[in-house]
Amino acid sequence: MSSFEDGPRQANRWTDAHAGSPVLVVEDERELAEEIRLELQASGHQVQLSETVDDGLRAARSGAAVLVIDRMLHGEDGLSIIETLRGEGNATPALVISALSSVDERINGLKAGGDDYLVKPFDIRELTARVEALLRRGGDARQTRLQVGALEMDLVERTVQRDGKLIDLLPREFALLEYFMRRPDRIVTRAMLLEDVWNFKFMAQTNVVDVQVGNLRRKLDPSGGRRFIVNIRAVGFKLNADT
Ligand code: CA
Description:
By secondary structure, the protein is α/β, with parallel strands linked by helices. The protein has helices at residues 30-42, 53-61, 79-87, 103-111, 124-137, 171-181, 190-196, 208-220; strands at 23-26, 47-50, 66-70, 72-73, 76-77, 94-98, 116-119, 145-148, 151-154, 159-162, 165-167, 187-189, 229-232, 236-239.
């Protein structure tokens, strides 16, 4: 099956190394695919559409800046595209979009090599924001280092530095900080942390998140003078990118 007709090329305001590669959207619901295409193009991105696993895989191999992949594609699971690409050493960042919303499904998406997971129905602006976050990360989806402001994380050595000084973190604190550092300046809710860092499937009546965030804060900034992780009242937390 062939790709949908591509839209007109637009001036791309993204000037990074991926400016020449399109965002590849693999989605078999044409109406939604068109909506995504129009929205991304309006934000200055080139978009290529595809609607099957085979066609999406081919298009991804020939070069894409970011992949947006639906899970259910004419009876096949879009995750197989990501798994195949990762197996070939292709690390193009991938956003999985799916009506499958359970925590298990989200974890499956990430295990398959997806970098982010967005549950349908979603606000199209949310999708654009997530795609742009992946574009900023660039083609090195399997990053080995994260840097946010004064914080630096080595994902291979499992070390964290603040202003070049090593900070000793417990494994859960490390996972928690990694979660924040992958989402700088974005609101992270307690539910997200419980599901994604603790793998709790139900909203437990627990203050474990607040306790651990408190511990992490003290380790990052024993003096308490800098605010790396701030509370967002009644919602959750946010890692400040410029602290
Ligand atoms: Ca579908």
